[in-house]
Amino acid sequence: MTSHIARNPRLSPLSALSPLRFLISRPRVTAFVTRLAYAALAIPAWLWLPATANAAPETPGVRVQTLLKSTTSWDKTGYTAYPSGTPELAVLRITIAPNTTLGWHTHPIPNAAYVETGELTVERADSGASKTYVAGQVLPELVDIAHRGITGDKGADLIVFYASTPGKPLAVPATVPSAPASLKAASE
Question: 161-172, pLDDT tens digit by residue?
Fold first, then answer.
């Protein structure tokens, strides 16, 4: 799904998120499972990582490494709630070509991205605040705040976990009227 994006840097990687026909409506699960959604990110992630335990394992031969446990996004904006309705979890692999700037967008739902390879700098539209994540780090995404991602010379491969409901978009393009004040000052 993302290979055409890597070949054509003019295509937004967000366009890969719009045809989510492969997501199938899941049976009703309890609200408790939804609250554990971020914890579920650690389960598939340890399959891709050489895990180093940060706590004593409870089962011989099993090591668990917490990659992310957060009540805030990367810029310390607090998460307020999960979407109401039947929970639907989605895990996407997103490949972003080198030296690509994504369009401004928002996420209406909590999500987190594991940077598998490369690096990604995330930037808020309103303040210009930014932070760079490298391979092996987890990015707790902003919810309902316009932002974008920028890759370096190596691009980035992300594994992104979304806690959503059926029919809700994972990302929404955002209109940003002008550059953040910090960016205007830097360019003058």
Answer: 999 999 999 999
In this structure, how many other beta carbons lie within 10 angstroms of the beta carbon of residue 161?
A: 23
Q: What domains can be seen in the chain, in order of their start residue?
A: 3-51+63-165 (2.60.120.10)
For 80-128, how does the pLDDT look when each residue is reduced to its tens digit (9 = 90+)? 988 899 999 999 999 999 999 999 999 999 999 999 999 999 999 999 9
41, 112 in Cβ contact below 8 A? yes
User: Which phi and psi angles does 42 have, rounded to 5°?
Assistant: -65, -30
Task: Give the dihedral sign, CA 93/154/172/124.
Answer: positive
Q: Whole-angstrom Cα distance, residue 170 to residue 161? A: 10
